[in-house]
Amino acid sequence: MKHYYFTSSLATYAGNKDGYVEADFDPLTYDIDPNKTVDYGEGKRQAEQVLFTQAPFQVVS
């Protein structure tokens, strides 16, 4: 596999703020709470966290 594309969405960013930037969410410091209800946005956050911290390949955003 040369490339794996995982697209994010605004659902990654919690809240109702306009003008989100990539720095508003840091997957390297995000803690996954196994007891938290996983809606679409939380699932995207958790997936990004796992890819950035555990993937055996380079991950960029």
Characterization of this structure:
The longest helix is centred in the C-terminal third of the chain and has 15 residues, at 40-54. It is built from one helix and no strands. The model has no long low-confidence stretch (mean pLDDT 81). The chain has one domain. It is globular, with a radius of gyration of 12 Å. The chain has 61 residues and is mainly α.
SSE inventory with pairings:
Elements: H1 40-54
What are the main properties of this structure?
25% helix, 61 residues
Order of helices and strands: H
Radius of gyration: 12 Å
Q: Count of DSSP E strands? A: 0
Q: Beta-strand percentage?
A: under 5%
Report how far apart the termini are: 18 Å
Oligomer: single chain
Question: What is the helix fraction of residues, given as a range?
Answer: 10-25%
